[in-house]
Design brief:
Two copies of one chain form a homodimer.
Chain A (H helix, E strand, L loop, with lengths): L14 H14 L8 E2 L1 H8 L3 H14 L2 E4 L3 E4 L4 H25 L2 H20 L2 H18 L3 H23 L4 H16 L3 H28 L2
Antiparallel strand pairs in A: 1-3, 2-3
Helix pairs in contact in A: 1-3, 2-3, 4-6, 4-7, 4-8, 4-9, 5-6, 5-8, 6-7, 7-9, 8-9
The structure holds a DNA duplex.
DNA sequence: GGTTTGTATTTTGTATACATTAATCATATT
DNA sequence: AATATGATTAATGTATACAAAATACAAACC
């Protein structure tokens, strides 16, 4: 683990939640790598807190599937296998389709405007060529759709599933030959939501995931062979 | 909280997991009621352990959505609102459809046999008229289908969603006028899986949830008005 | 050489202690 | 009488202490 694991003090959150967010972020960004052990005293010293909040944070990470517990040996960052990624993508594909169908039914006028804006901003982001900006614009756009469902449980589940893909998504975005396709897909999604065309919307959403799948899995394989 | 909250000692599980399972069960069975506070010292005394494993169990229940945390006030059993139940059912409906479609593709010969057996056993369970036996047979049957997907993430997600419905499911099963319909639906599910007819299977799975929805929501309303 | 066994060390699992904040309740004041 | 206020109690948040298990490593043994 490189040493930029640092706690961001949020004055009014319990330490356990601060630690939880910190570790979660570290895992998602790859700062803490799969297989790496999370040793309590170590983390406690590094983050300048006691073991208690560390342990409580780990319990949540455990349930979230980001770390696995080995009894009497402690926690380590969960390995992402090809199988587990396929499982995630399979569910995500279906949930995204559900999201967009519900969005067709329930999206508000303001949200349609926001979605339009997000589409335009994504197009601009693509033009900058900056991966981080593009990824951020992509998240913002999808977030609008997910929230438009009004289903908070669904929001939470999608977020959890997205987590698992987080690290590997970048490779797809990096591939600039896909950018035109992405912009086009987003516009199709926008159009079909506006037209309340659930059929098309759902098809595009699934296609959207299918397109990402190959590069995510490739990246995953590459990652594994590099260890 | 009535006083049959008791710990079941599993020699080789960490206490936090034993406590987690105990509290989880207590919440699902309604032994711990929505809104009821989970006070650490009380629970610790009652279960004969210290606060530490209690707290760690609560962290997991928190992420699972079964309890909510109020800062500096502690945990209480999550209220199940009509909205949150609708959200759950909406996602569950879609996931069940996914499950059964995947099962069509991937179910093994042995699992088909097991599913047939589970169907028959459900029919027998219905004949006994015993709610608990029927509910159990129902769970067993659905479990086979979910597992037949081979998607462990999906299994985990469906289990989490089922939790939320757990308490309220019984009312539907109690209504014996629905029994014939249930048996019929199960047979249709079995048939369509054997024929690998994803279209029909998916439709029946959704219908299956839709049929349960009304009585679950009714029960929820009744539950709320009784407090 | 390889296996085994024993000891030291590390790490987790659990309990407890201390600090801080929230809730309670009685008393005083207007 | 109603509201404020202050002391008391109780609960959570955090840190630390202690016990037990796992690991690592070295010496003894075959």
């Amino acid at each position: 683990m490189q040493d930029h694991l640092q706690i961001k003090m949020d004055e009014f959150l319990p330490l356990r939640d601060v630690v939880f967010n910190t570790l979660r972020q570290a895992i998602l960004t790859g700062d803490l790598k799969p297989g790496e052990r999370l040793m309590e005293i170590h983390l406690a010293n590094r983050l300048g807190v006691s073991r208690t909040p560390i342990r409580e944070a780990i319990r949540k990470l455990e349930l979230e599937g980001l770390v696995i517990m080995i009894p009497r040996r402690g926690a380590e960052v969960a390995q992402i296998t090809e199988k587990s990624m396929n499982d995630v993508l399979e569910v995500r594909r279906s949930m995204d389709a559900l999201c967009i169908e519900l969005a067709c039914e329930r999206i508000s006028e303001e949200e349609v405007v926001a979605l339009k804006k997000a589409c335009d901003e994504f197009e601009q982001a693509v033009e900058t060529g900056d991966i981080k900006i593009i990824a951020q614009a992509d998240v913002a756009l999808h977030d609008i759709i997910v929230r438009a469902t009004g289903n908070m449980r669904l929001v939470q589940l999608i977020n959890n599933l997205s987590e698992q893909m987080y690290r590997y998504r970048f490779e797809y975005i990096k591939d600039s030959s896909q950018h035109a396709r992405l912009v086009e897909e987003h516009r199709m999604i926008y159009d079909s939501i506006v037209r309340k065309d659930k059929e098309t919307a759902s098809r595009v959403a699934k296609l959207h995931i299918d397109n990402q799948k190959k590069s995510i899995i490739d990246q995953l394989r590459l990652d594994r062979s590099n260890r």
